[in-house]
Amino acid sequence: MVATSLIALDSTIIATAVLTITDQLGGFSQFPWLFSIYLLAQAVTVPIYGKLADTFGRKPIMMFGIAVFALGSLLCGLAGSMVTLILARAVQGIGAGAVGPMSITIAGDIYTLPERAKVQAYLAAVWASSSVLGPLLGGVFSEYVSWRWIFLINLPLAALAAWMILRYFTESAPRQHHRIDYLGAGLLTLGAGALILALLEGGHSWAWNSPISIGLFAGGVLTLVAFALVERRAANPILPLWVLTRRVLVASSLVSLLVGAILLGLTSYVPTFAQGVLGTSALTAGLTVGALTLGWPLSASQSGKFYLRLGFRITALVGSAIVVLGAAALLLVDADSALLHVAIGCFVVGMGMGLVASPTLIAAQASAEWEERGVVTSTNMFARSLGSALGVAVFGALVNSRVEASDHPVAAQLAPAVHLVFVGVAVMAVVMVAASAAMPARDGTVVPVPESPHR
């Protein structure tokens, strides 16, 4: 939980300090890269860390991730220009790519199936708390201390997390002497990186039909095709192609992709709607979308009772149906709606997420042996990162189609623009129901989990 709090806080804490940072360092036009480069570096490294963890064990990969994240935080705190700050954020992202999936993989190793739902709820609670505390802490540090402490505060937290894992997590992982698939890792990084970069920056830094956008999409697809050909012949592939042939893994990854996209859409545009259309303060707008992250851990903490009795597929179907209900409630929101209406819709979506996100991930983990679990978990996490990038592209395009490239859109423009986001969320929620229905039945998903040597 301490390790997870590092990357959870850094995904939100910088949001309220952007103007303070750019006032001192300049480069206001470059500030979106502070978010994009972090997400990009994190996303493309996740699958690689998953395979390395299955080869060398979870502990060394987790320790490496914490160390790199701490180094990136130090470099961010010492940055003297926007360019160096962006590069330091990339270093942070490389470390975060290890910490996130390793936390969940370690939980899958040391806890039994009934215990895992409660543990996943604890980890979800970290993200929920960070989504509320992050912007608040960012504002406090930037206004009363220094924006540099937004990053430097990570150093004692990283030291504490590293010490606790080093001291209390005993792992006797079976060392496997395999040749590392460097070519596959390189192709995956380049291909996935090009596609995610195209999704993140398309329509913002360059037009969708510009040569750079077309080049990134085409180059990314061709590189991933080459990656697939290499992996078919690799003795120890960095991302085995069997993850695309197992029904439970494909279904859970599709659910995770949709979770990432829906979460991005609501957390990005609900505060915009609350401020720009309903006229609330920034703090009130943040608390409104915080209802989503309040409902998530509440239902996630109870999901174990559901999937142990009903199975993973039924639990995921119930959760995705609740997401549809919450999305339907948001479809009824307009310029005359009460703020409570928006918060209730977000809360219901969060309740559904807690019943679909954790059970589908745990189902995927339960279908794999120890030597596969790192790849399985990282694939799921990679799908969520890809979903976030896809959400940036889809929802950004929908909003921009109505605000006519205005830097300061008025409420009359924002209301129909954000309504399109709610429509997109509803469509994705319906697709999530179909993805949950594609999960195998209970007997086909849950396999006996052997007693772990890493307890």
From TrEMBL:
Domain Major facilitator superfamily (MFS) profile per the UniProt entry, residue ranges: 1-444
The portions of this protein that span the membrane are: 31-49, 61-88, 94-114, 121-141, 147-170, 182-200, 206-227, 248-270, 276-298, 310-332, 338-362, 382-399, 411-435
**This protein's superkingdom?**
Bacteria
Cite the entry's keywords alphabetically: Membrane, Transmembrane, Transmembrane helix, Transport
Hydrolase keyword on record: no
Q: Does the keyword Transmembrane helix apply?
A: yes
Q: How does it sit in the membrane?
A: Multi-pass membrane protein
Subcellular location field: Cell inner membrane
What this protein is called in its record is: MFS transporter
Species this protein is from: Nocardia acididurans
